Amino acid sequence: MSMVLRGVAIAVLTVAAVAALGWAFIYGGSTELGPLGRVGQAALWSVPVVKLVFNLAAACTAGPLVLALFVLAPDEPAHRQARRFAGYSASVWALAAGVFTIVNFQLIANIPLSADGFFEAFFSFLVTEDPALSGVMATGIAAITAGLCFMLRGQSAVALTAALAFSGLIPPVLNSHAGGGADHADSTLSLFLHSGAAVVWLGGLAGLVWLRPFLGAGRLGTVVRRYSTLALLSFIVLAVSGVLAASAAIGSLAQIGTPYGGIVVVKSAVFLILGVFGALHRLWVVRRLDTEPARAARYFWLLVVVELGVMGAASGLAVSLARTETPTSLGLTASSEPPPAPALGSLLAQWEPDPLWSVVCAVGAFVYLAGVRRARTSGMRWPAHRTALWLTGLTLLFLVTNGGVHVYQGYLFNTHVLTQMLLTAVVPLFLVMASPLSLAELAVRPRTDGSTGGLEMLRSFLRPALGAAAATPYVPVLLVAGTLVAFYYTPLLSYSALSQLGYAIMTLLALFSGCIYVAALIGAAQPAQLPMKLGAVAGTALLYGVYGQAIGAQATRLGEAWYTAVGQPWGQQPSVAPELAGPIIWVIAGGTLATTAVIIALRGMAGHGARGSLEANPCRRAKASPSSSVLR
Predict the structure, then answer these.
(1) Quick check: 358 and 398 in contact, CB under 8 A?
(2) Residue 623, Cβ density class (10 Å: 0-12 exposed, 13-18 middle, ≥19 buried)
(3) For residues 231 and 305, what is the distance between their CA atoms, to the nearest angstrom?
(4) DSSP three-state, residue 586
(5) Nearest-5° angle of CA 450, CA 453, CA 454?
(6) What is the pLDDT of residues 172-190, one digit of tens each?
(7) What is the pLDDT of residues 156-172, one digit of tens each?
């Protein structure tokens, strides 16, 4: 029965993928040879077909590894089988990457495989051209991943292998439409997030089919429930990143009628159908796997086969979409212009979506609200003001990383400083006070089968790190000082304005240092620690005061270097003066540090030894949590 299920699933996935690829490839106008008449239709069609195999094999490599990391117990037979399936898939992935490099060269060079001098030209192509280097990197990563899947054991080794597998998605993304433009760093990141979420969803589901003989009736419900959580998170990431990537490629709603826009519309409809399947799994099948395991299992595997067919169609559409000219690349949309001169109105009106932080905010809001719902369903009360603090913090993070501040920080030195201070001092204060880790401890049940879930990672890594930081408050102060040095006295200053990756590093570093700082100071404390924590706040105030003075004194030099690197189209205006950077640091630091000091003092005077902030546990469990969970 298991072999029949595997065969049917492979057939449905393959037929749907090839059919969708064929329709979209023809509809998108990619079958026209044009100047590629020497290579012929066979070579033209071989590129998307091999790329489809590449994508499916990559998904069936990374997806089972994610199952082995977060769903399966290390000592159960299914864990070893997941690694084996990933190894087999990675072998196919490596082969497909190598073949794709060859057939892609045929199109690029317009040289048929049988032509004289093909191999000489191909070897020259391998060492000189970016598409070839991308193919070589993907082939090498896939081959190494295959070897590691068969050789290594233990969760640490599986984590390393999974990280390597996901890194194999980067080379093809950099050579896609998103990476081909001069100003498409955002869409490149969108595509990577989109690809990563897709391989977890598709590869995980394919992994479940492979693992069916090794999952007993009593185990199936637990495994499916955990995978369902991963699939739901993948759905959110796919939705947000897909919208942003499509917006960057299409440019405007007027271009929906283009071939590229038409394929996007069909792919969106397929995505919504997958969402319906996901809802059926979560709301109907998963619940019955515990109460009616035999009957529910039959419906589950039937839905899985159909869902794999729909996923195959989505995969075929995605491959064809990557070979279809975008409206933006054809010049059908208006060229981007600099924003208007900075003013309060333009600062509020401008908009530049950032894919990474849009996804972070969407997932953060969903997971937190799901945790609150889970706590209340379990008979616990979660303070409403903590939820309000979390949503406020995420809203601020979203506005800073997607709104006018994000737009102008790429042009103005003072707005860049404003961005860094909001991310380091303001946003963390709201997020930390919302006690997300305490909510996780209330909402997520511990696992008893030896597998690794969110609660296990929290207790193994985050709690010890926060405890060490709270015991020595001067360490977070030094961390903040180090980030200030990195922001203003290293190449990260201009790199964060010129590169999407640099901006992501700057944002992540600012949030990390700020959250560690706030959590260490307003977290759990003994009365004897009160003077030390207030002293750390005073030291931080002195630090910001000195840095504000230094930045103000060097504003002209820093501003000239900044404007030389990034450009400044508005000339000399008061709002663009780099000298504003110093007062920005003082005002924001003064307000947030005063607030932090008041919180520390109030909790110290309360003297009840309550665990605070990230350490707080304001609710008590009233009864066991229900079996279904979006956080498990």
Answers:
(1) yes
(2) exposed
(3) 16
(4) helix
(5) 150
(6) 887 765 444 434 455 677 7
(7) 899 999 999 999 998 88
